[in-house]
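Quick start: read one record
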Amino acid sequence: MGPEVRRLADAGPSLLEFWKRYKRLYPNHEVFKLVAENALKLEECVPCYMHGDEGTTYKKDGCLCLSFHCAMGRGTISNKMGPITHEVLDDPHLNFVGHAFETRFLLSAMLREDYRDDHSVMSDLLEVGEPKLLRNYAR
């Protein structure tokens, strides 16, 4: 969420604003049920996207990359916000500006030969990666 955010508590107000807006669109999302049960605090819940994309290697072999990133950031190409500051955090934007090395966390990169014929490879990968990503999701 930027260099101004050193601790999760620093992002609390911005996270609350994000979830307030999200609730207008998806009021029945599981995260709100957990909040109602006092199992989760929205000011400590960082929204993330998980993304998979198959590209090619230098030798034109298929390569599947799986990554995740925070939903909040500097905006989109049409509304670049510049550096993340407290003013930007007060009005959260999407996280689609900047180099992938700065905004994405790589979970896996697999050659096509590793998953082409065995579909369980992907579900096994998600079973390994997901609990680590969601370890604080439900307490």
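Residues 51 and 75 are 18 Å apart (CA to CA).
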